[in-house]
Amino acid sequence: MSFLVNLYVLAPAGAALDGAARALADGGFLAFPGWACAPLRERPAVPGLRTPQGGALLDPSRRREVGGAAGLATELAAGTPVLLAFPGLVARPGAAPHPDCAVGLYAFPEGYALRLADEAGGPPRHEGTVRSWLHFQGEGAPGVEAFRGSEAGRAVLAAWPGAALVQVDWT
């Protein structure tokens, strides 16, 4: 049985996305190009957040290419809600990106009521308003301990001391 790992790294209060985004981009951990798009789905039949994998599937007319760190900085400077979706996580600089781990960087300058729960129901693993978070999604996404021990994880957690890590697995 395979699992779809969803690891969320929630920014500590007052931290903006640009610190963690810069740590990932400058460290060579993001597989460019990525895409910038609206973080919320526009179809009433399927409301909610767009996933990191979903950003790549959007019609090109509804997304903007992010070719490198400069494009990432431009998107973040706009000050509007955005999902920055990347097709892979690079475990260490110079390595090939892991194809089964999409990366989403979410920014909601005014905050977003985020509720994270597993597919079986039960109490939420997180429920509260956040302004920024990272979402690693896929069969190859790291779990909490693997992320903490990775070069990418150490870079992000240095940029966001006190960040909360929440893992939700789906079968």
Instruction: Please give the order of strands in the largest beta sheet.
Output: 3-2-4-5-6-1-7
Give the topology string: H per helix, E per strand. Answer: EHEHEHEEEHHE
- The helix content, as a percent range, equals 10-25%
Backbone shape: globular
Strand content bin: 25-35%
Number of helical elements: 5
Please, how many domains?
1
Distance between the termini: 7 Å
Structural class: alpha+beta
- Count of strand segments: 7
The value of Rg in angstroms is 15 Å
Low-confidence stretches: none
Mean pLDDT across all amino acids:
91
Biggest sheet features = 7 strands, antiparallel
Describe this structure in words.
The protein has 171 residues and is of the alpha+beta class. It has one domain. Helix content is 23%, strand content 32%. The protein has a 7-stranded antiparallel sheet. Helix 1 packs antiparallel against helix 3 and helix 1 runs antiparallel to helix 5.
